[in-house]
Amino acid sequence: MIETALTLFERYGFHGVSVNQIVNECGTSKGGFYHHFASKDELLFVIHDYFISYALTKAQEAIDSNQLPTEKMQKIITSFLKVFDLYKPHISVFYQESIYLKPQYVKAIKEKRQSYKQIIFAVIKEGIQTGEFRPELPVEITGMSILGMVNWSYKWYKKDGDKSIEEIADIYVDLILNSLLTDQAKQEWRFKDYFLKNN
């Protein structure tokens, strides 16, 4: 049902698609639709929730399974990029149609996005405290720059492009860690694999 709705929303827009069209296209009933979703608005919220929940889960896994801030940041950036490969239709539809969401759904989305943002800020703070990241970098501006840089990928990333999502993630990791790490930390052998190699 979600995949059908995504296709229809991309083609006709949120207001250009009725619940009848969704259920007819995917071969279910209106009762089936309303068993899963209270409204079309809730369906749009769930479309967003798919990718933000994935990003939050992966970020938390990075925090829980790594000790060093640099390792945490590398895992977070990599999983963040993969969102655009796994959920590109969800993201495209959400950004096109999110203005139609009702206030309660907007509030829930903002809360999850705030949680993700705070994870990024916390890792930057930790990296500064441990001496891995440059102390002169303002935490919030740095965090928002990372989020903005990676988020914009949904505008240009294509599955059939010249580079895979993994290759793009490696480029982002190189760019971001080269900006974050102190000169001394860049020389540490345990971080060397995070930087692109000359062929």
From TrEMBL:
Protein name in UniProt: TetR/AcrR family transcriptional regulator
Species the sequence originates in: Peribacillus glennii
InterPro entries, alphabetized: Homeodomain-like_sf, HTH-type_Tx_Regulator, HTH_TetR, KstR2_TetR_C, Tet_transcr_reg_TetR-rel_C_sf
Gene Ontology molecular function: DNA binding
One family name in Pfam for this protein: TetR_N
Keywords: DNA-binding, Repressor
DNA-binding region(s), chain positions: 18-37
Domain of life: Bacteria
Stored PROSITE patterns: HTH_TETR_2 (PS50977)
HTH tetR-type domain location: 1-55
